[in-house]
Protein: Sensor domain-containing protein
Organism: Mycolicibacterium alvei
Amino acid sequence: MIRTTTAATLLAGVAATVLATAAPAAAAPAAPIPTFNYGTKSGEVLLTAEQIGEITDAPEMSVVGRSDDLIDAKSSISPKECLSAFEPARAESFSDADPKSVTIEQLADGKPGKAPHVVIQAVIGFSDKSELGDHMRATARSWKSCGGQTVTTTSKSGDEVEWQLSDPSTKQDDTILVISQRSGKANCERAIAGYGATFIDVMSCSFEGGRATGQAEDIAAQISANLADQK
């Protein structure tokens, strides 16, 4: 369960509900798929607060929440298909799969909802690499169909904020899939990767005009390297 703060509370600083101004295509087009690396072991592979601080240039980063369950926050999302592209480790985004293990950490350099920087890093274990591959492909198709769309987040108080999604692209020799989102001064980057039977799911956000480009990518790459080191 979440300690210190709930996942839903932290994510409220990023988004509550999502409404797209344009619906996705009825049939998802071909999407870039990250190349899978195949290892055999998992464990404590998430980055430390110090490492996250170095990547995000936010030295005051600390862990503000941890969970061994997927995030099941109550929110109204439209289109629902864009939830995975917008937020990490959401239970609805794994309806096509049966994860065997979940570890999520949330880090921030301030109070949830007010922190200048927020990072969510997660590793989700599957029964085998085949099941992981199926989920990675489904996720990539979802991201592709949502690329370029404008989404609207609505807080519990009814405040709405528009976010512009980029088109997804592969990085790190095609091993990581990333998509960015922007709203005013706020910039976020999402990244996913796979190692062995482990799904790596990351989001990094800067809410005061700082950069986020490359941050989730770097975090995902380091988590993958940590998994490789356990072989």
